[in-house]
């Protein structure tokens, strides 16, 4: 590959947009004679066994799309070529992959929907990964983790560097013999480029590939790309630089395709005869040669047609013979003048067998709607298309989703566990549902962003309100851990505009209770009240007038009047005191607790408490704190103690400390302890602020640490200090 190359440096030129961060790795191969020197400029460490490298791999894993790998669990069972089919195409591609001296460095295999491109890509990935194929990426418009370009570079890089990769041992060496390098995998497989949902990203990826492979000094990589022949992809490949390095192959209806589909159907019907009780008396004459000929003719080279027919016939709801007869009859009934394609007619027949189409359509509409993650928030990465989640969003009973979709196993992959996602088996079915010219009365468009966010927000609010009926808390539900940050990020997303809300969302807002929710949230997530965000939410809710009066009425007393916090006996009073200040600061500023050294020392000296901040933070979760209205008269169990949180307390404390130096704090401490007013002479503190500080600190100290009944100053690190 690099014979007779001297003094050349080959630089990569790939960028990976990873959400809020931008990662740019420059890796180069310097060629001197027959020796290749690895050059690193950022990115992966040369020593893959050192801690930096492990951090790099962990970051790559976080930014990669695991579902895009050929052996991902989410894609199981992946499409694959039926044994004995696609022999000519597989042989040609295998020869290209294994070829050591080739003029072409990019192979583009293209064809229309359903001809089996992904099955061929999967077959080759299974055959050559680790030997000739270095990495693969399978795009899918139905999976938001792999429908865009952002995770592409990280995914490939992770596959090259992960444990077991043949390339990992050589990535960290300073030099690699050219002969040894040529024996390493160098093919990158990209399937479904057209399913990368943004057309400019498709063109950009091909431009990124084109630049290094057409440079005077070639990179070692070659690319095998599978896609539909979409105009923007054709246009990108028409670039003059691709002329001398590109090989193309179209998958079209052919004699080979006809033979392959016939073999596939004959073999599958034979398997059905073996496993179905209803077919045990049928001989090899079922189905007839004429029936198979008609189906093969209707398939017209589309394997998706053949596989969907087999799945439709393979049912226990009806006799397979009757199902097959139904399929054959629809083409007779519609005739040659039908406005629908043969595949569309098949989809029409499948949907016509569904009971309660209105319910089926609601579920399908949710499934064809991509789950949009506000701000690329990682907390949104949940199974939003799982039976359990769909049931919650559509207010269906447990197990009802599976029952509704029971006749759609030929076009949907229903998971064994109801917490795993339902998958549409082929993009052609999504396109059929979305196009009214194809689907007619079964037209099922995806939801608008407004509709979808309304639905999700309603679900999240219902989840956040589940603790209200069980409050005070005895058993906690971890769903709140997920629901709050999701609702938070969705409402803070600048692109989210709810506009006219549904009646369901208004009802969910009316039932929302801030006290029970926040108590549960603090148990799981710690102290962070996001006060500015909630104030914005109140302002937003008021714009709907009387419809949200109950929601506003519940939140305004909480935000403006404060609340009470009750601590259980297992939380020491000293720690409760610290947490009270954390809550007040979060309540005022709306961010996770942060305290500078001077303020920490001031608090410790004031209360004789020694608490490491790391200890405080690690102790937040897992404790049941009761959040109660400011005027609560709840009788607490023995050993519990309560403090009152108000905005005014923290505003005064924040205002006073922000204008003071270390000497001023010493004087303020003396004034508070000795009940003097010397600090007023320096005109740094208002008289009413000093009076308020003295009053509420004295009261809180008396409440939380009653045994320390005097204000005599003692060094916090010396004798008499109270240690948590």
From TrEMBL:
**Alphabetical list of Pfam families matching this protein:** NPHP3_N (PF24883)
Q: Does the keyword Repeat apply?
A: yes
For this protein, the record's SUPFAM superfamilies field holds: P-loop containing nucleoside triphosphate hydrolases
**Species this chain originates from:** Moniliophthora roreri (strain MCA 2997)
Which positions are tagged coiled coil?
A: none
Keywords assigned by UniProt, alphabetized: Repeat
What is the name of the protein in this document? Answer: Nacht and wd40 domain-containing protein
Q: Which InterPro entries match?
A: NPHP3-like_N, P-loop_NTPase
Boundaries of every Nephrocystin 3-like N-terminal domain copy: 92-228
Top-rank taxon: Eukaryota
């Amino acid at each position: 590959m690099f014979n007779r190359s001297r003094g050349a440096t080959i630089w990569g030129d790939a960028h990976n947009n990873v959400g809020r961060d931008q990662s740019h790795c420059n890796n180069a191969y310097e060629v001197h004679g027959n020796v290749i020197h690895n050059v690193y400029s950022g990115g992966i460490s040369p020593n893959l066994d050192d801690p930096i490298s492990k951090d790099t791999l962990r970051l790559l894993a976080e930014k990669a799309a695991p579902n895009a790998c050929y052996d991902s669990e989410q894609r199981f069972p992946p499409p694959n070529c039926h044994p004995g089919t696609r022999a000519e195409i597989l042989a040609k591609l295998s020869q290209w992959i294994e070829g050591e001296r080739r003029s072409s460095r990019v192979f583009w295999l293209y064809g229309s929907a359903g001809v089996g491109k992904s099955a061929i890509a999967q077959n080759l990935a299974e055959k050559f990964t680790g030997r000739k194929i270095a990495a693969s990426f399978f795009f899918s418009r139905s999976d938001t983790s792999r429908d865009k370009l952002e995770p592409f570079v990280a995914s490939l890089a992770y596959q090259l560097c992960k444990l077991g990769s043949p390339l990992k041992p050589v990535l960290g060496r300073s030099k690699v013999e050219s002969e040894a390098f040529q024996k390493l995998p160098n093919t990158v497989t990209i399937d479904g480029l057209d399913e990368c949902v943004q057309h400019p990203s498709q063109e950009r990826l091909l431009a990124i590939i084109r630049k290094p492979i057409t440079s005077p000094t070639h990179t070692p990589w070659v690319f095998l790309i599978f896609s539909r022949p979409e105009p923007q992809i054709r246009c990108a490949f028409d670039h003059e630089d691709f002329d001398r390095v590109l090989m193309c192959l179209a998958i079209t209806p052919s004699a080979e395709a006809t033979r392959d589909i016939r073999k596939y159907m004959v073999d599958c019907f034979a398997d059905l005869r073996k496993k179905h009780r209803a077919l045990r008396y049928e001989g090899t004459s079922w189905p007839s040669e004429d029936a198979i000929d008609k189906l093969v003719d209707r398939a017209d080279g589309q394997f998706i047609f053949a596989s969907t027919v087999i799945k439709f016939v393979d049912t226990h709801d009806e006799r397979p013979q009757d199902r097959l007869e139904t399929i054959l009859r629809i083409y007779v009934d519609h005739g040659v003048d039908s406005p629908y394609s043969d595949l569309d007619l098949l989809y029409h027949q499948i949907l016509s067998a569904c009971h309660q189409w209105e319910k089926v359509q609601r579920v399908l509409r949710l499934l064809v709607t991509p789950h949009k993650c506000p701000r690329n928030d990682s907390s949104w990465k949940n199974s939003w298309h799982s039976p359990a989640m769909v049931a919650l969003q559509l207010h269906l009973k447990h197990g009802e989703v599976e029952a509704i979709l029971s006749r759609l196993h030929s076009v949907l992959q229903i998971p064994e566990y109801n917490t795993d996602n339902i998958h549409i088996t082929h993009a052609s079915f999504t396109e059929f549902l979305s196009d009214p010219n194809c689907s007619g009365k079964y037209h099922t468009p995806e939801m608008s962003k407004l509709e979808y966010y309304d639905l999700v927000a309603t679900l999240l609010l219902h989840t956040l309100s589940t603790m209200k009926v069980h409050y005070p808390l005895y058993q906690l539900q971890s769903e709140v851990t997920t629901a709050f940050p999701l609702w938070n990020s969705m409402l803070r997303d600048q692109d989210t505009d709810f506009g006219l809300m549904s009646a369901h969302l208004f009802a969910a807002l009316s039932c929302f209770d801030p006290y029970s929710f926040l108590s549960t949230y603090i148990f799981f997530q710690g102290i962070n009240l996001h006060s500015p965000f909630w104030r914005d939410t109140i302002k937003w809710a008021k714009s709907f007038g009387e419809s949200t009066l109950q929601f506003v009425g519940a939140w305004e007393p909480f935000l403006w009047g404060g609340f009470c916090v009750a601590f259980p006996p297992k939380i020491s009073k000293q720690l409760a005191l610290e947490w009270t200040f954390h809550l007040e600061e979060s309540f005022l500023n709306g961010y996770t607790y942060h305290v500078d050294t001077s303020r920490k020392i001031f608090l410790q000296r004031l209360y004789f408490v020694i608490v490491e901040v790391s200890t405080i933070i690690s102790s937040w979760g897992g404790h049941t704190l009761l959040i109660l209205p400011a005027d609560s008269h709840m009788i607490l169990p023995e050993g519990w103690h309560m403090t009152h949180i108000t905005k005014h307390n923290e505003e005064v404390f924040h205002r006073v400390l922000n204008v003071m130096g270390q000497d001023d704090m010493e004087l303020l401490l003396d004034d508070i302890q000795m009940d003097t007013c010397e600090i007023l002479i320096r005109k740094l503190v208002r008289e009413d602020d000093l009076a308020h500080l003295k009053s509420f600190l004295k009261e809180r100290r008396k409440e939380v640490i009653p045994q320390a009944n005097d204000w005599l100053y003692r060094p916090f690190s010396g004798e008499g200090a109270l240690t948590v």
